[in-house]
Design a protein that fits this description.
Elements (H helix, E strand, L loop, with lengths): L6 E7 L6 H9 L6 E7 L6 H6 L7 E5 L6 H11 L4 E4 L5 E2 L4 H11 L3 E11 L5 E5 L5 H7 L12 E3 H6 L11 H9 L4 E13 L5 H4 L1 H14 L7 H18 L1
Parallel strand pairs: 1-2, 1-4, 2-3, 6-9
Antiparallel strand pairs: 4-8, 5-9, 6-7, 6-8
Helix pairs in contact: 9-10
Length: about 260
């Protein structure tokens, strides 16, 4: 491994004792090895850190603990500040990387395409036992992504590799949002750089009772509307995006 790793994998963790070991192991199973893994515990009260600490024999792994629960945006920003890599690979502590060549493919692409700053991929919904449920692929071309990005988020967090410099020049993750801070960041990065997705499943997105977006539908819907409004002059088809955002809020009220 080089003195400064090429990739910084950032993993916020809060009460994920049932899943974090599998998440960490999926990083260690990557064919690309020039990375660091930064795990930031956001005040877990279960065995999350006890389990994660068992992997510290690998020198690429660091564990940092927040003194108090800061929430996802501030925890991700702290990880960004600690990151030494040129590229950032976020991985939620309940998700897994399914493609062992994920980082290798993505690093190669970003190295060869400096005008792109965000590279994602497809996901497989998995249950608590890691059994596959549903495959989801996202648009590939930058022009297509721009046409639909105000209608829905075309990037799955745990599939991404993005340029640290591009995120920092935008101010990182906004603490204005509790849940949709990632969506806001992608839109900010897209003002200066290109987007794309690999048309293959890269990661497993865990479906379970503690998914944040399941528990806080209305908060998510309101944040999305605010973000879409803020970017209505930056991306096309903003009216469609606003309409869908209002419908999402109405549906959230019905569901809650």
């Amino acid at each position: 491994m080089s003195k400064e790793p090429k990739v910084s994998v950032i993993m916020p963790a809060f009460n994920r004792e049932n899943f974090i070991a599998e998440s960490i192991q999926s990083v260690l199973s990557q064919s690309f090895t020039d990375y660091e893994l930064i795990i930031i515990d956001d005040g877990s009260t279960d065995r999350t850190m006890e389990i994660a600490s068992k992997f510290l024999k690998d020198p690429r792994i660091r564990i940092v603990k927040n003194e108090t629960n800061l929430g996802i945006p501030q925890t991700r920003n702290r990880a960004l500040k600690l990151a030494k890599g040129q590229y950032i690979a976020p991985l939620d502590s309940d998700d897994v990387w399914l493609d062992h060549d994920k980082l290798e493919k993505q690093v190669l692409f970003l190295d060869e395409n400096p005008d792109y700053a965000i590279l994602g991929g497809g996901i497989m919904h998995i249950d608590t036992e890691s059994k596959p449920l549903k495959k989801v692929l996202f648009p590939i071309y930058d022009s297509v992504i721009r046409n639909i990005i105000l209608q829905f988020n075309p990037f799955a967090q745990s599939t991404l590799l993005y340029r640290k410099s591009a995120a920092l020049e935008c101010g990182g993750y906004s603490t204005e949002y509790k849940i949709c801070d990632d969506y806001d960041l992608w839109l900010k990065i897209g003002l200066k750089h290109k987007f794309t997705n690999i048309p293959q499943v890269l990661s497993g997105y865990r479906i379970h009772g503690e998914n944040i977006t399941k528990r806080k539908r209305l908060t998510v819907a309101r944040e999305i509307l605010e973000i879409v409004r803020k970017n209505s002059g930056n991306y096309p088809r903003s009216m469609i995006g606003k309409t869908k955002s209002y419908l999402r809020i109405l549906l959230s009220y019905v569901r809650t």
